[in-house]
Amino acid sequence: MGGWEVYCAICGGAFSSQVDMDPEGTDEDCYRYDLLQDCNLEWLDEVCGLGVNPDARGNEKAFVTGVGYYWDYGEIQVVSGDDPNVPFYNDRDDIPMTAYASPFFATWTLPNASSYHDFSETGDPHVFPFHPICYHGVLERCIRQENPEHIKRDVLFDVLEDLNGGRYVRLQLSYGEPEPSAEQVWRTTKGQETLVVNPVRIPQLDSDLDVIMKSLEKKGSPHQNSQSEDIFNVLPIELRHEVFRHLSAGSILAVKAASLAMHTTTLPYGLWTHRLRSEMPWLWEIHDIDVFQSQESEGNASKLLLDIQTKSQYTSENDDYILGLANRRRIWGVCEQIRSRYLEKLKAISNTDN
Fold it and tell me: Which superkingdom, per the lineage (predicted)?
């Protein structure tokens, strides 16, 4: 029968960078080498686990392990890391909890941990496996966007447990398009290269953002349009605000870049944050940039945002999208499903406590 795989609870992807690639790009069961040749796939090799240690001190029992790798048959090999709740195994049972943060113990390897289910039926608790990038880089960011407080891992574990079942190789969620493989071994399919591209470190996106950052460094002067040429100049502030409320984020920037009157008009309170979070919450880099410093920076940012919906959307028709960004947007959709259930449980707990 051979070995079999489990997949990341967050992105649904494999825990191996060893994927089949075809230099000719004609094999339907291989990724195209020309699309992935410059991509670092090593992020796929790393795995962490979210589990619960009933013997942990304190009220919170959940833990996240250090980084390890996928072993086989549903098992992962990880190090303890610096989470004090991680169960530590050795010949002694009197190790103080503070020892988990010790550099010496942090390098010790834990016994194999079962993913999703106790496949060997030994009674050991299971963990939910994920790529560190998917958890720390995407899921945590997604949850904190709606709830900036400390993430309660016990609650998060319960959410994932509710979604656990079926074949015990991934969660019962919609993993978006293209849908990742859930078979005995990872299936490589021509045209689905986006599934294995890093969703956080995206060089092509960095290049686009660099254009915006360089324009911010300049002391740009306003566009020298005459008062009569600027149709927005005759509008009172209230109507300018109403115009902004009916525009997308990219269109807001385009109008500001083209009109000095609109450029100098401050947006209604909270409108920009709301637009970004509702239209492109997964493009967190732009959330942290003040793009309103000059009309040049507004124009550059507008070009990016107006084009980003297409560049971030996977399609089987062509490859005119940024692979890593399309993967991030897909994974963000998975994280939103987890987040909604997490927030519901938090609310239920809060209502019970009150």
Answer: Eukaryota
